[in-house]
Specification:
The chain has 396 residues and is mainly β. The chain has a single domain, classed as Neuraminidase (6 Propeller), CATH 2.120.10. The strands form eight sheets. The protein has a four-stranded antiparallel sheet with strand order 1-30-29-28, with no helix packed on it. It has a four-stranded antiparallel sheet with strand order 2-3-4-5, with no helix packed on it. The longest helix is centred in the N-terminal third of the chain and has 8 residues. The chain is globular.
């Protein structure tokens, strides 16, 4: 079962400045927008306040409830059900842009309904494929969609337009929004044939990509997290195609001010397909994943990276060993980890990590099993998770 998914894109939550804004913490993007991390620094615009819809009184804390059904694709393109391998972005007006096999949709938290929006652009050489695409909310409110055809979604018009393409399309890499408004595109598998270490920067002011420093090693299915100081932490990964035969425990940091990578402390355990979450403390929670490329062995352990020391330390383990799960930072600083694949099958279970105790506790389960599906924190504090033909809301 796992081998059929070995080349799928690992979903990572990369909109850290947006999450921080929702939390209202000292790490809000407005506190770092004026910092210059490169020659073409772009100050972020002041975020538009999100409306706060009133949550239904039927929601019970620690449970999932179903919400509106996503528009189904014309035909199921995978054996895992519709809306598999998708991405979401929280727009400045509080709605959610969802990109799946049925195209682009908008989810309205106030009504709990999905509706169609503009059609993503495609070409014979690069048809739109959400399994290969990643979406990043830019400072101006538009959404950058990285994939076969790089394009921009404009919420004001509901349309997609083309923008510059990277030198190499990276199907198992990652993209993160830097504090200066640019996007770091981190290398991995190019056309599924090899793993790369090359990285590029997308500048919204010019609509173009430019090369930047390369990672120290070729890898894929790693985690990528923007730290409070603007650096980017890449941890773990795998490079099976290069003869590695397993997972990395190493980690490295990208400095936008110099465009260079530097090694940092190594994880306590090698892992790939893990989750990474920037906590309110500034530390990074790395949870789950796989530790062996040969037999896809999910792990139950978790650890914390401290940017102040450059070291990883063990923290509490999950209740279930899982890979390709989704992790969401809640308003109160806890982390919701849901879904993913276990040793035997995909799961609908979920659990909560509490940084104050360093422990995971079991919480309510989703309505269906989900793997490689996105989750996002809504303005009212609920969590939206979409995939496998349906959508759920988690009530903290």
């Amino acid at each position: 079962m796992k081998s059929e998914r070995s080349t799928r894109l690992a979903i990572v939550l990369l909109t850290i400045p947006l999450v921080a804004g929702c939390l209202g913490s000292s790490s809000s993007p407005t506190s770092t927008a004026g910092q210059s991390f490169g020659q073409s620094a772009i100050p972020l615009s002041t975020p538009t306040p999100h409306p706060t819809p009133t949550a239904s009184p039927t929601g019970v804390s620690g449970t999932f409830t179903t919400t509106g059904t996503p528009i189904a694709p014309p035909a199921d393109p995978t054996a895992n059900g519709p809306n598999y391998d998708a991405s979401m972005s929280l727009l400045k007006d509080g709605e959610v842009l969802y990109l799946g096999y049925s195209g682009a949709q908008l989810y309205d938290p106030a009504t709990g309904q999905f509706r169609a929006t503009g059609t993503p652009m495609s070409s014979p050489d690069a048809p739109f494929d959400p399994a290969l695409d990643q979406s990043i909310l830019l400072g101006d409110g538009k959404v950058l969609v990285l994939g076969g055809d790089t394009q921009l979604y404009d919420p004001a018009t509901g349309k997609f337009t083309r923008t510059g393409d990277p030198e190499e399309f990276q199907s198992e890499g990652a993209a993160v929004l830097l504090h200066d408004g640019r996007v770091l595109y981190i290398g991995a598998a190019a056309e599924g044939e090899f793993y790369g270490a090359k990285c590029e920067l997308y500048d919204p002011a010019t609509g173009k990509f430019s090369p930047t420093g390369s990672m120290s090693a070729q890898k894929a299915q790693f985690t990528a997290t923007v730290l409070r100081d603007g650096r980017v932490l890449v941890a773990g990964g795998t490079n099976e195609d290069q003869g590695g035969g397993g997972a990395f425990s190493s980690a490295e940091l990208y400095n936008p001010m110099t465009g260079k990578w530097a090694k940092t402390g190594s994880m306590k355990a090698p892992r790939y397909r893990a989750t990474a979450t920037l906590l309110s403390s500034g530390k990074v929670l790395i949870a789950g994943g796989d530790d062996d490329e040969a037999d896809d062995s999910p792990v139950v352990t978790a650890e914390l990276y401290d940017p102040a020391t450059g070291r990883f330390t063990k923290t509490g383990s999950m209740s279930v060993a899982r890979d390709w799960a989704t992790a969401t930072l809640l308003r109160d600083g806890r982390v919701l980890v849901a879904g993913g694949g276990t040793e035997d099958a995909d799961t609908r279970t979920a659990e909560i990590y509490n940084p104050s105790t360093g422990r995971f506790t079991v919480t309510g389960s989703m309505s269906v099993t989900r793997i490689l599906n996105p989750s996002i924190l809504l303005p009212d504090g609920r969590v939206l998770i979409v995939g496998n033909g349906s959508a759920d809301l988690y009530w903290p």
